[in-house]
């Protein structure tokens, strides 16, 4: 195994370089970067604080708006959101907002700042099913409003996709642990290895709690019928979880074929290279001009020597040989690999919990279900499937629950 898999890939700013980067900010009056952040983390305000060496104020801005600020600093595709709105782009390049946010949240951790406080108890208790990013943000928001919160997690550890999906080099376990501990210290109770429908029923939750939030996420990798029961095939979700859970200490092939072109596929192919697989090939349905993956993740994979073939889709498979056809050209190619990994999407696992889903998302928009006591959040709700959007949804569902329950105090 290569130790590179466990090494954080992003370098951090020093005190000197952080000031240089913050001073590039144009201090826009009506800052487009803040308008472009789905979670409302308000980069314009925290960058202004950094520029005037008010790191405490910067940390307060980030944390009060985003309970997962340290996670988002590392994994948010900023080029699609805040940095795309940055006015500095018209001059040279956007401000490295993610890098500044990382410096501030590192400062927050090193100085042991405790920014969020639990609200005055209002006598109401909320159950949250799932401890992924949206469930965690929901918990943090509700705790600050005075609710008691119990999170039910089917796994041995909290974090959901943060814990079992995003590779260690992008999101170290220490950061995930840090974020979760802050929410536990705020008052969240987490019941581990508890599956709804098996260990406790949804009806029992409804009877015991004032509201129930289902934040179950898309925990299962999709497959394609032609690859069913093929021993050479594994889903991206399974591979990433296995690699992360074992700190990269897994059996590796000499060559691997990955099918898919989103950010998850980029995580897989980069992980394979960092783990020491010599030959990695990624075949993607989209052509480069329409790629779904972030430019940063794509460039990272290409820089590590991954072969990426765009514009092809699989038409047949014979054990470990896959034949592809081009979308527009009369071309076919066949690739043989020891390991085939499918990164063709994710879906809800077994915990559907009587939800009315269509293409793994709620048929209706909004957070409250037909059963007024049950709310939903996370990837099963319409919107982008990123951590920053999970934070946005967590904040919004918490506000909706608060309004539904009247926000009354004892």
TrEMBL record:
Domain of life: Bacteria
The UniProt record lists the keyword Nucleotidyltransferase: no
Every FAD/NAD(P)-binding domain range: 202-394
Record-annotated Dihydroprymidine dehydrogenase domain positions: 4-112
Record bears the keyword Oxidoreductase: yes
UniProtKB keywords: Oxidoreductase
One annotated GO molecular function: dihydropyrimidine dehydrogenase (NAD+) activity
Catalyses which reaction(s): 5,6-dihydrothymine + NAD(+) = thymine + NADH + H(+); 5,6-dihydrouracil + NAD(+) = uracil + NADH + H(+)
InterPro entries with a match to the protein in the record: DPD_II, FAD/NAD-bd_sf, FAD/NAD-binding_dom, Helical_ferredxn
Enzyme Commission identifier(s): 1.3.1.1
Function statement: Involved in pyrimidine base degradation. Catalyzes physiologically the reduction of uracil to 5,6-dihydrouracil (DHU) by using NADH as a specific cosubstrate. It also catalyzes the reverse reaction and the reduction of thymine to 5,6-dihydrothymine (DHT).
Quaternary structure (record): Heterotetramer of 2 PreA and 2 PreT subunits.
Protein name, per record: dihydrouracil dehydrogenase (NAD(+))
Organism for this UniProt entry: Vagococcus hydrophili
């Amino acid at each position: 195994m290569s130790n590179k898999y466990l090494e954080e890939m992003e370098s951090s700013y020093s005190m000197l370089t952080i000031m240089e980067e913050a001073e590039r900010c144009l201090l826009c009056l009506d800052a487009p970067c803040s308008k472009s952040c789905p979670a409302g983390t308000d980069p314009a305000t925290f960058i202004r604080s950094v520029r005037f060496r008010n790191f405490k104020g910067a940390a307060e801005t980030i944390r009060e708006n985003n309970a997962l600020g340290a996670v988002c600093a590392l994994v948010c595709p900023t080029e699609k959101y805040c940095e795309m709105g940055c006015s500095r782009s018209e001059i040279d390049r956007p401000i490295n907002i993610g890098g500044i946010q990382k410096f501030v949240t590192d400062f927050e951790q090193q100085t042991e700042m405790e920014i969020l406080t639990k609200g005055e108890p209002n006598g109401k208790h909320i159950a949250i099913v799932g401890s992924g990013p949206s469930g965690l943000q929901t918990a943090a928001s509700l705790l600050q409003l005075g609710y008691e919160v119990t999170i039910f997690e089917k796994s041995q550890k909290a974090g959901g996709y943060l814990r079992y999906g995003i590779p260690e080099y992008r999101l170290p376990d220490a950061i995930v642990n840090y974020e979760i501990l802050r929410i536990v210290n705020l008052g969240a109770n987490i019941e581990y290895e508890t599956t709804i429908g098996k260990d406790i029923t949804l009806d029992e939750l409804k009877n015991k709690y004032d509201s129930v939030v289902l934040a179950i996420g898309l925990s299962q990798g999709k497959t394609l019928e032609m690859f069913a029961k093929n021993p050479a095939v594994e889903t991206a979700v399974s591979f990433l979880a296995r690699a992360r859970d074992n700190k990269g200490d897994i059996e590796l092939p000499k060559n691997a074929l990955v099918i898919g072109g989103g950010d998850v596929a980029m995580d897989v192919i980069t992980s394979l290279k960092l783990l020491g697989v010599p030959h990695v090939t990624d075949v993607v349905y989209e052509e480069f001009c329409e790629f779904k993956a972030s430019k940063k993740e794509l460039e990272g994979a290409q820089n590590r020597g991954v072969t990426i073939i765009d514009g092809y889709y699989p038409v047949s498979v014979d054990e470990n040989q896959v034949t592809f056809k081009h979308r527009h050209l009369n071309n076919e190619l066949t690739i043989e690999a020891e390991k085939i990994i499918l990164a063709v999407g994710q879906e809800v696992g077994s915990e559907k919990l009587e939800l009315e889903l269509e293409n793994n998302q709620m048929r209706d928009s909004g957070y409250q279900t037909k059963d007024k006591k049950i709310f939903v959040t996370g990837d099963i709700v319409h919107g982008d499937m990123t951590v920053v959007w999970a934070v946005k949804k967590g904040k919004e569902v918490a506000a909706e629950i608060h309004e539904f329950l009247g926000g009354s105090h004892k």
